[in-house]
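Hi team,

As requested, here is the filled-out complex form for the glycine run. I kept the field names the same as last time so the parser does not choke. Let me know if anything looks off before we queue the next batch.

— J.
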Amino acid sequence: MKAIVVGSGGREHALAWKLLRSPQVTEVVCIPGNGGTALLAGCRNVAMADTEADGIARCALVNNMSFVLVGPEQPLAEGLADALKAQGIKVFGPSKAGAQIEASKAWAKALMAEAKVPTAAAAVFTDAERAIAHLQQQSTPIVVKADGLAAGKGVTVASTVDEAIAAIQTAFSGQFGAAGERVVIEEFLQGQEVSVLAVTDGQTIRPLLPAQDHKQVGEGDTGPNTGGMGAYAPTPVMPTELLNRVQIEILEPTLKALQARGIDYCGVLYAGLIVTPAGDPKVIEFNCRFGDPETQAVLPLLETPLEDIVMACCEKKLDRLPPFSWKNAASACVVMAAEGYPGPCKKGLSIDGIANVEADDADVVVFHAGTRLSQEGLMSTGGRVLGVSAIAPDFSAALAKAYRAVDNIQFPGSYYRRDIGHRVKGITHQGITS
Ligand code: AMP
Ligand code: GLY
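And here is what came back:
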């Protein structure tokens, strides 16, 4: 079996890595991939933009690929899956219509209301005046969101009315382009965030192990939001009974509402949830793809071959697949970023030590988030550079292994949080199953 993975981040490296762990998979092509996928045995990078539908289709057809697995949301929101399917190519990732669940927060809110899925109360506005008038009748903290894809910068959790007004004005100022033409103002939900990545063939939906990520750049979960500074799974915040509630109260009704809109959704439905202090799961947002860095923590635990899940989804046979099989272990991923992240940061930093840390410990794997392989060796290309993952019988041991590896990887000015997994240290994974 041969497959294409579309994207260039840590998530895509983890997807390619997991596919190639299976003897059934003989080749993975990453478009465009990164330094990690360039070094991965059995994997080859093809330099092409992840949104270039014609080129990706050609590559899939010429190489007789079994399927295309799309990592990022942008190509899905632009209709990559539709373009590939139109040429008879199997694709794991929703259509443009389905990707609206992430690409338009207002659309997702309407869908959730229809499906009676628990979520924050919200109102949608197309002009600043009405949005501000509404805001003045609400209490703080309050959340202001640009409707569309804004590269992770469109959400403000405002603790004062002034801050919320500024966020509304920023969105309508055009700073986020079309993504800010509509603004969602919603109730602030208190509690712990959990990411449930579920896979679906459009008829059946099944969750993977629940994960938590650390979005904020600073230790103690402080400072600006990032793409994610680390993750771990399976989180004890979501034991099996609660995951069953997520399945019944959130995932299944959402899938039904998608079906009612005529959307044949194949791929990942990622539910970003809050578990309220009362213990109830509520949706903060949906994404139409695997989470990053959650994937780098979840996939090392998955024993079921990933290609079996992908093919079952593409062929609408997910109901026939046996329950997913998981390693009885805890998993953690620590992100190493370049100094300055999430602001501007230096690129082209030379990276050393990865091969040694992987050779020293079979339970450690280093996923590349922003690297390229050059003649001089591995160089950084972005803010998030690496995701160092490790598995062990409990979280403390998994975190210790990941940090030991981090200590032995060098690039100038590397920055990482030292407190990833602070909530779960000392906890075993409690045999959570999905
Ligand atoms: P989003 O892009 O919608 O996931 O929002 C980014 C982050 O903002 C989330 O991961 C949460 O930490 C926070 N957030 C978004 N919506 C809410 C909400 N309604 N209540 C509390 N926090 C929120
Ligand atoms: N880790 C958050 C995301 O993938 O959106």
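Two things worth flagging: The first strand starts at residue 2 and ends at 7. The chain has four domains: 2-95, 127-181, 192-320, 330-425.

Thanks,
J.
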